[in-house]
Amino acid sequence: MTDGNAAGQATDQPRHVLLAVHTGRRDIVDLARSSADRLTRAGIVVRVLADEAPDLAIEGAEVVPADAEAARHAEIVMVFGGDGTFLRAAELARYSNAALMGVNLGRVGFLAETEPEAVEETLAAIERCEYSVEKRLAIEVDVLDASGSVVGGTWALNEISVEKAERSRVLDVVIGIDGRPLTSFGCDGVLFATPTGSTAYAFSAGGPVVWPDVEALLLVPTNAHALFARPLVTSPDSVLTVAIPPDGNRARVSADGRRTLEVPDGGRVQVRRAARPVRIARVHTTSFGDRLVAKFGLPVRGFRDARAHGPGHEAPTSGHNVLARDVQDADGREEVAGAADDDA
Question: Which residue, 84, 121, 154, 237, has most beta carbons within 10 Å?
Answer without folding.
Answer: 154
